[in-house]
């Protein structure tokens, strides 16, 4: 179990909160772009595959990435 420290928590100024939020947004944007790039590659791979088994695995991966991108976009929307 984790117990809070006895140390006083440092209060962040409004500028620090805004700055930290902007950094998080930049990180989420980069993650979203990376996920979209991987998703695009997977979708191109599906077009080239001939075996249904292989295509099913790639479809499953692409669906997971789509859900991940949706969650990232939700986080971005809430951060802005």
Description:
The chain is an all-alpha fold and 80 residues long. It has one domain (16-79). Helices cover 79% and strands 0% of the residues. It has helices spanning 14-48, 52-79. Helix 1 (14-48) packs antiparallel against helix 2 (52-79).
Q: Which SSEs are present, and which pair or pack?
A:
Elements: H1 14-48, H2 52-79
Count of helix runs: 2
Beta-strand residue fraction: under 5%
For the termini, the CA-CA separation is: 34 Å
- What is the H/E order? HH
Q: Could you give a short account of the major beta sheet?
A: none
Structural Rg: 19 Å
Question: Which consecutive residue ranges, at least 5 long each, have pLDDT under 50?
Answer: none
Shape: rod-shaped
Strand count: 0
Helix/strand class? mainly alpha
Average of pLDDT: 85
Helical proportion, percent range = over 70%
Subcellular location: Cytoplasm
Keywords: Cytoplasm, Repeat, TPR repeat
Main location: cytoplasm
InterPro entries: Kinesin_light
């Amino acid at each position: 179990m984790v117990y809070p420290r006895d140390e006083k928590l440092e209060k962040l100024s409004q500028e620090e909160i805004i700055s930290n939020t902007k950094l998080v947004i930049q990180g989420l944007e980069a993650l979203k772009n990376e996920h979209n790039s991987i998703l695009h590659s997977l979708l191109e791979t599906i077009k080239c595959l001939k075996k249904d088994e292989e295509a099913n695995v790639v479809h499953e991966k692409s669906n997971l990435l789509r859900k991940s991108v949706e969650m990232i976009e939700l986080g971005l929307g809430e951060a802005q």
